[in-house]
Specification:
Keywords: ATP-binding, Glycolysis, Kinase, Magnesium, Metal-binding, Nucleotide-binding, Pyruvate, Transferase. This protein is α/β, with parallel strands linked by helices. Helices cover 38% and strands 22% of the residues.
């Protein structure tokens, strides 16, 4: 299924989008990757959604990526005797490990690991930052705080601790069980929540054992500080602006988003911009102008993908939300300013043979009016490098690995096609020509650029480029061997 845009759309599935008809309509409307949120839904429900996605993929002969988003550790206060209390600015409030129900002066915080690292002056944010506490004094089992922003605090509200690196693994026991379940199920990407350090990513990779690519969600200040190490350890990144906007001043988030996108592009690793992109469409068939501008900004910045959360999972207008994203993306990418911005931010420092090959492929394609860049890739590396160039012509990624093709569904501009096993470059050129014609990227009279790594099936060997006719008879005539 050919898209008329390069940025990809990720749609979260949930109660509003769990049957075959809806999932198929979402894909036809523009969803390239489906997100399974492990914070909601049983394993049986997740399994059924996975089955339906693969059925839609087969029925439409269209490669679809699946991303399983692990919940991550959840920090919450305990329960209150009255269910809730009203905290006033300037009052004292205590957090401790005592089991007694909470009241207006204190509540249980059943996470001793937090008390281990708290220091006077540290901030604690409750209920998505609606209530803010500042630590006055603390010990191994308590923190006496001053309420700096008051409000209603109620049972088991979430707690954010932005000022310290918590001695918590990114994977809870539930996450480990979920990871094993979805990796065996056959998802393509694993998203890790509340990553703080590269070691969190490395632990998930050991558990995944190559069954899925690892995507790190950047939603804590510690992750922003350690981003270079986290990016190196990850296969992809999600700029998760929800918790990031809670734990940091909201005005800090846009420049952070821009910096992270550029670093991901330089590393040739896909990046998703997520959270509240079309939030009003949970209840309205039309977005706000500010939301449309937010989506457009992420596209102008060069992100690989933009994501819908509750809009498609639980909203009243999931198809309209995907359609809106698709329409905004097409309009932005047809704007000459978009091309100027993308090309101005292109990486010019070429360090390897592969870098030179894909840069040459782009330049040839754009100067010689070639119709498409076709890259044969076993691991996905060649396609990722071509996508980093952000060429003006379509990218066809051909692979004998269906898992590679599905993972590339998250990558900017790539149309993924599965092929048989190849052992000769000429066979890759022939397959590329057939695919380009089948998908209406080219006719038999047009030219394509083909890149690959020889020997085949060896990761990171992008070393060959050919400009070829899009007619296999001419390919054989010019290269009879």
């Amino acid at each position: 299924m050919r898209r008329m845009r390069n940025v990809k759309i990720v749609a979260t599935l949930g109660p509003a989008s769990s049957d075959y008809e809806m999932i198929r309509k979402l894909h036809e409307a523009g969803a390239d990757v489906f997100r399974l949120n492990m914070s909601h839904g049983t394993h049986d429900e997740i399994r059924e959604r996975h089955r339906i996605i693969r059925q839609v993929e087969t029925d439409l002969d269209s490669t679809i990526g699946i991303l399983a988003d692990l919940q991550g550790p959840k920090l919450r206060v305990g329960a209150f005797a009255n269910g809730e209390e009203e905290l006033e600015e300037g009052q004292d409030f205590r957090l401790d490990l005592t089991d007694a129900p909470g009241d207006k002066s204190r509540v249980t915080l059943p996470h001793p690991e937090i008390f281990q690292v708290l220091e006077p002056g540290a901030s604690l944010l409750v209920n998505d930052g609606k209530i803010r506490l500042q630590v006055k004094e603390c010990g191994e089992d308590f923190a006496n705080c001053t309420v700096t922003v008051g409000g209603t605090i109620s049972n088991r509200k979430g707690v954010n601790v932005p000022d310290v690196v918590l001695p918590l693994a990114a994977l809870s026991e539930k996450d480990r069980e979920d990871l094993e379940f979805v990796a065996d199920l056959g998802v393509d990407w694993l998203a890790l929540s509340f990553v703080q350090r590269a070691a969190d990513v490395e632990e998930a990779r050991r558990l995944a054992k190559g069954r899925a690519a690892i995507l790190s969600k950047i939603e804590k200040p510690a992750a922003v500080k350690a981003f270079d190490e986290i990016l190196y350890a990850s296969d992809g990144i999600m700029v998760a602006r929800g918790d990031l906007g809670v734990e940091l001043p909201v005005q800090n988030v846009p420049p952070i988003q821009k910096r992270l996108i550029r670093k991901c592009r330089a590393a040739a690793k896909p990046v998703i911009v997520a959270t509240q992109m079309l939030e009003s469409m949970i209840e309205s068939p039309m977005p706000t102008r500010a939301e449309v501008s937010d989506v457009a900004t992420a596209i102008y910045e060069g992100s690989d993908a933009i994501m819908l959360s509750a809009e498609s999972a639980a909203g009243d207008y999931p198809i309209e939300a995907v359609t809106t994203m698709n329409n905004v993306a097409e309009e932005v990418e047809n704007d000459p300013t978009y091309t100027e911005i993308i090309e101005a931010s292109r990486i010019t420092d070429k360090k390897s043979v592969a870098d030179g090959i894909v840069a040459a492929a782009r330049e040839i394609a754009e100067s010689a009016k070639v119709k498409a860049i076709c890259c044969y890739t076993q691991s996905g590396t060649t396609a990722l490098l071509v996508a980093r160039e952000r060429p003006r012509v379509p990218i066809l990624a051909l692979s004998s690995s269906i898992s590679t093709a599905r993972r590339l569904a998250l990558t900017w501009g790539t149309q993924c096609v599965t092929t048989g096993d190849l052992d000769r470059f000429k066979s890759a050129v022939v397959d590329a020509a057939k695919a380009a014609r089948k998908l209406d990227y080219a006719t038999s009279e047009d030219l394509i650029v083909v890149t690959a790594g020889v020997p085949f099936n060896t990761t990171g060997t992008t070393n060959i480029l050919r400009v070829a006719p899009c007619d296999e008879r001419l390919i054989y005539a010019t290269d009879p061997e």
